[in-house]
Amino acid sequence: MTKRAFLTGASGQDGSYLAEFLLAKGYDVHAIVRRSSVFTSQRIDHILNHPNFHTYLGDLTDSSNLHRLLGRIEPEEIYNLAAQSHVAVSFEVPEYTAEVDAIGCLRLLDAIKDLGIKPRFYQASTSELFGGEIGTQPQSEQTKFHPRSPYAAAKLYSYWVTTNYREAYGLFACNGILFNHESPRRGETFVTKKITKAAARIAQGRQKQLVLGNLEAKRDWGYAKDYVEAMWLMLQQKEPDDYVIATGEVYSVRDFATMAFGVAGIKLKWRGEGVSEQAVDAATGEVRVVVDPKYYRPSEVDYLQGDASKAHRILGWQPRTSLPELVRLMVEYDLKHDGYSGEHG
Length: 345
Known about the structure:
Elements: E1 4-8, H1 13-24, E2 28-33, E3 53-57, H2 63-73, E4 77-80, H3 87-92, H4 94-115, E5 120-126, H5 150-169, E6 172-178, E7 181-182, H6 191-203, E8 210-212, E9 218-219, E10 222-223, H7 224-234, E11 243-245, E12 251-252, H8 253-263, E13 268-271, E14 278-281, E15 287-291, H9 309-315, H10 323-336
Parallel strand pairs: 1-2, 1-4, 2-3, 4-5, 5-6, 6-11, 7-10, 8-15
Antiparallel strand pairs: 9-12, 13-14, 14-15
Helix pairs in contact: 1-7, 2-4, 4-5, 6-8, 6-10, 8-10
């Protein structure tokens, strides 16, 4: 029989790749999409007419709707990817972030328990749980959590409530602790997309400069398309468990910018330090990247590096795409497209 999967966050970066992945495996995919006065379905427009893809208006703040949909669909697998996922924005809207990212997860888990259905449940967790004050590198499933943003604190609640419902009620519930993962579909307010789009526009003469915050922040960046396979693999195991998903390779924001501009044909030369640091076009001397402290977070997470050896060993998962290759994909997409087309990337 055809498996039924229920997705939240289907119109986001990860949700769109996961929906494609599951459809390719023959699933019936049921997804909730938030009602908005502007179109937000660009990433999934190309699969909206797929006979096995079904969308419903819904939101993680509406428990009655979640309860009704889950009771009607009775999915075998649930993937909770919806979130207010921007770390910097979470400092501006902490209550809303908690309502969606923390209590939204609880609403889903409690609906599963109350309905008496037996789906396998995936909770999208995050490397931001580890925070910046860490004694050991890299971070694994055993590393102590130290969230340093309202986003990370909300995700910490969803991590532990998922674990609690697994232990208290016997639910097959997993946390995927995914380190940073990007793609051509990344939202434009995230630093990686901001960089690749600016590199493309500057190369085409349509923008003069890129303004960034903390250039020293170091991240373990992977390709979102690779990471959704790990989500699915977690729900195919005999026993539920939690897994770190990462590449194990670390680069700074400065490194990412240097790669992106290089793909666009601009060699950057860095000079200065701190808020005075700049990058100039080595060929023309024009200033292309500057720093503005307004983009600093109130509390920074300086270094994140994942140890995905458990996922390698148990899930058989490996990242397929290096960061230089990922940056190339993103910049080449931005050089060709001013807007967004979900069928690419």
